[in-house]
Amino acid sequence: xxxxxxLAVLLVSTGACAxxxxxxxxxxxxxxxxxxxxxxxxxxxxxxxxxxxxxxxPALEELRRPQGEMELAGRLWNHVPDMAAxxxxxxxxxxxxxxxxxxxxxxxxxxxxxxDPEPDIxxxxxxxxxxxxxxxxxxxxxxxxxxxxxxxxxADYESAAAWAATMWTHAPRxxxxxxxxxxxxxxFSGDEMANLIGLLRSASASPTRGPAAAPR
Length: 216
Ligand code: HEC
Ligand code: HEC
Known about the structure:
By secondary structure, the protein is an all-alpha fold. The protein has one domain (3-205). The chain has helices at residues 2-24, 30-41, 44-47, 60-63, 69-78, 80-90, 99-108, 121-130, 133-136, 160-181, 192-205; strands at 138-139, 142-143. Helix 5 packs parallel to helix 10 (160-181) and helix 7 (99-108) crosses helix 10. The protein is globular. The termini are far apart. It binds heme C (2 copies). Residues 131-133, 135-137, 146, 148, 150, 166, 170, 173-174, 177-178, 181, 186 line the site of one heme C (HEC).
């Protein structure tokens, strides 16, 4: 496809610019510079241009601001459906992002763990219900039938980057299923993602699991 090839060339050339910047910005950490390059590789730069240039999304300067890691994970989750629809229309593939790459991207976007609050488990419970997770999934066998049960221990509950990467990979399918079932894709704001993860982490640490476990 000619358009696809033109885009690839464009991406490669903007990628080259980003690489040139890497050598200039000597003070910044390696992770942040890797994140800068990934921002180009993962197509983010197509919609998030520097301020003053037209782009489909908010300007790069608005994305790069002090924020919590879970807060950013929530923001990334929110825009999966729009981005997936845009890429689908063009016939482009969804860019996979690994946990390590997500950590670099988070660094580049100035996300800092210390800005996330201590999770509030009670609020996390409200969030779990409000965001419709249990319409598809179960928590300790109560709720929907889509795997996984959210009380199963998961390594990605322990790290914002790993969690954001998991959601990045799977959310397009969740979005499709939500559309098919006629309810809206859940969106996150403020501390909601931090609280939800706090709840899931604590639920998964509980020993009452397995088919025989009584739901609480
Ligand atoms: C197809 C265009 C498009 C692409 C590609 C895209 N975005 Fe976005 N992005 C948007 C739009 C539109 C918004 C604002 C509306 C929304 O949040 O859905 C947005 C919002 C965001 C926000 C939230 C900003 C805020 O203030 O809450 C973040 C963070 C973000 N994008 C990061 C990324 C990253 C990282 C990538 C690459 C992995 C990416 N975007 C790729 C269009 C895009
Ligand atoms: C509309 C149905 C639907 C809703 C709502 C939904 N999910 Fe999912 N979820 C899915 C499907 C389908 C998959 C399997 C997708 C896949 O593996 O590609 C999945 C997979 C997952 C996974 C496993 C991903 C992996 O890589 O192993 C987790 C964790 C998860 N969802 C958490 C949540 C949380 C938390 C919420 C609420 C904020 C939620 N889901 C809301 C349908 C849904």
